[in-house]
Amino acid sequence: MKTDGIEAVFLTTHNWGKTAKFFQALGFTLEFETDHHSGQLRNGDGPYLFIAEVPASEPPDAQIVLKVPNEQALTPEAIVDVVTPFEDTHWGTREMTVRDPDGRIWRLQAPGKAA
Prior knowledge:
InterPro entries: Glyas_Bleomycin-R_OHBP_Dase (IPR029068). By secondary structure, the chain is mainly β. The chain has one domain: Roll (2,3-Dihydroxybiphenyl 1,2-Dioxygenase, domain 1), CATH 3.10.180. The protein is built from one helix and eight strands, in the order βαβββββββ. The chain has an eight-stranded mixed β-sheet with strand order 2-3-4-1-5-8-7-6, covered by helices on one side.
């Protein structure tokens, strides 16, 4: 199995506006904002940062998303603990989650299926 590095960092927050301003003060540029208190920022050519607001009842979280060239890049023996198999996302990619030996959850993102 081969990944193509870090695709993104997904953050959840209790205050989208304040968190977006925080990262903009650190040099990130807002690429787009959704109508449901989330958006994508980027700083240079590196991974993008996607931030989504969650209710106060949910703890803020951070996940690193690894990019894979396609689903076939992952052989069954390469992944020990698949939490969720590849599924379509509402933003046009395919995503899988796996658990590492220490119990952390990792997202793997592949391009969406061609229309």
